[in-house]
Description:
Layout: H1 2-11, H2 13-28, H3 33-36
Helix pairs in contact: 1-2
Amino acid sequence: KSFTLTITVSTSPPQVATYTKAIKVTVDGPREPRSKT
């Protein structure tokens, strides 16, 4: 997963934030479903 993130960084910098957020939400779990939105 880390590799994919690195590749995405070079491809689309704005998309990185979305991917990082999605991963963070998954790591945090259903703890903060509001963050998903």
